[in-house]
Amino acid sequence: MKMIYSLPVLAILLATAMSSIFVVDVREKVLVLQFGEVKQVVDEPGLYFKAPFIQEVFRYDDRILGLVTDPQEITFADQRRLVVDAFARWRIVDLQKFRRAVGLGGIDEARNNLSKIVNPEVRDVLGSVPLQSVLSEDRVALMNKIRDNARAKAATLGIDVIDVRLTRTDLPQQNLNATYSRMQAERQRDATDEIARGNEAAQTLRAEADRAAVEITSEASKQAEIIRGQADAKRSAIYAQAYGQDPEFYAFTRSLSAYTNALKSGTTAFVMAPKGEFFHYFGVDPVDQAAAGPASAATGTGSTVAGGSAPKAP
């Protein structure tokens, strides 16, 4: 029976002992509160004791934490604008101040309060300098100034601001669109200039090629005419030499050429008396034809139809 009554007592004693012990991790800090009042601050890892049931343990991250601020449009001293956001690194250094500042909100409430400190500092510090300072080596000094100002104000929160860095510096959307349009227009103008220069160079090359073609063609025609003239002269010399040996044969071949050209088939037919030197080789002597007179014409002797009868051999 005593054993049965002792088990609940042992359980209660064990629960009481367990509730009075807590362990602090190396990555955290601890506040021990009794009825809302701070009784103990623990910032070293290890095993600790507290009054059971009436004291509470609140744990806070002891590591370096980060804060990304919302993008904001900054107007610089030279009236130029950029959209800027920053990244801050911070750490809890005074748990009692931190607890009083954030209450039960913890880390999330601390980030919210810290962003209300960092954002105005970014706007005030950057707004006092021209844009070129942010884009030059002076940027580091500006970020350090933002950090120092934010650190002084965040000390009331029990927070140490370790560093502040600008993560983005972009043009506002309307300025960005205008910049893109201007860049596009500049590239289009450059492309148009390049095309114009290319067309000009093409026209120059084409004109030079045409002139060279005309010169080459003219030179070739000149050489051809010279060669043709030399060939014609040589041919005429050969003809003259050949025909000079037999003038009658020369006259006969010349007459045949004339007959061939004048009496082609398919041309207009005509009827005429074979009189004159042109029909000398048709077998009718012009003197005999004249003596025959009307009788020959009446009987049709010696008449011919152009393109019909063939000449006789001499």
What's the gyration radius in Å? 61 Å
Q: How far apart are the termini?
A: 174 Å
Q: What's the total number of strands?
A: 11
Derived from helix and strand composition plus strand pairing, the structural class reads: alpha+beta
Percent of residues in helices comes to 40-55%
What's the CATH architecture of the domain at 65-170?
Answer: 2-Layer Sandwich
CATH superfamily of the domain at 65-170: Band 7 domain
Instruction: Tell me, briefly, the overall form.
Output: rod-shaped
Poorly predicted ranges: 292-314
Instruction: State the order of secondary-structure elements, H for helix, E for strand.
Output: HEEEEEEEEHHHHEHHEHHE
> Number of helical runs?
9
Percent strand equals 15-25%
Q: What top-tier CATH class of the domain at 65-170 fits best?
A: Alpha Beta
Q: Can you give a write-up of this model?
A:
- By secondary structure, the chain is of the alpha+beta class.
- 54% of the residues lie in helices and 20% in strands.
- The strands form four sheets. Strands 6, 7, 8 and 9 form a four-stranded antiparallel beta sheet that branches.
- Mean pLDDT is 79; it is low at 292-314.
Which helices and strands, and how do they pair?
Blueprint: H1 2-19, E1 21-24, E2 28-34, E3 37-42, E4 46-49, E5 55-61, E6 65-68, E7 72-75, E8 81-92, H2 95-102, H3 106-127, H4 131-134, H5 138-154, E9 159-170, H6 173-245, H7 247-262, E10 271-272, H8 286-292, H9 294-299, E11 304-305
Antiparallel strand pairs: 1-4, 2-3, 2-5, 6-8, 7-8, 8-9, 10-11
Helix pairs in contact: 2-3, 3-5, 6-7
